Amino acid sequence: MNDVVNILTEKHKTIATMESxxxxxVVNAITNIEGASEVLKFSAVTYSNEFKIxxxxxxxxxxxxxxxxxxxxxxxxxxxxxxxxxNYGIGITGKLNRxxxxxxxxxxxxxxxxxxxxxxxxxxxxxxxxxxxxxKENKDLIITEIAKNLLTII
Length: 154
Known about the structure:
Distance between the termini: 12 Å
Number of domains: 1
Low-confidence stretches: none
Largest sheet: 5 strands, mixed
Mean pLDDT: 94
Order of helices and strands: HEHEHHHEEEH
Strand order of the largest sheet: 2-1-3-4-5
Number of strands: 5
Number of helices: 6
Structural class: alpha/beta
CATH superfamily: CinA-like
Helix content: 40-55%
Strand content: 15-25%
């Protein structure tokens, strides 16, 4: 994330995150870098459907596609960028090493990431399988993939 923060700083761009399965891991990685306060606008950890909806995710999207879908990740990235008035918004949702008794739909260990470039109204979406043994290892895998993607986008 060091390079991400440096490039955002050089370009006078900002970022915001709405994270679910990563539990704030992405924003933590960003704030571990000196100067992060110049680029980070806002972050929300929205583990529950209730708070995804409160942060702007359309409940009909969740009902139609499930909370574990690219459509939900797109809603998350869009709404966090707009809420924070940030140049980039990141939305992350998926299941890590467990079955969710409240949300039965969705493939286990499939993670959906959407990066919204608000200035160009463009989405960069990808999904990945979290195949590591522990939640921490899977979070690290996701954060690394997000950083790699951000470096090609920004």
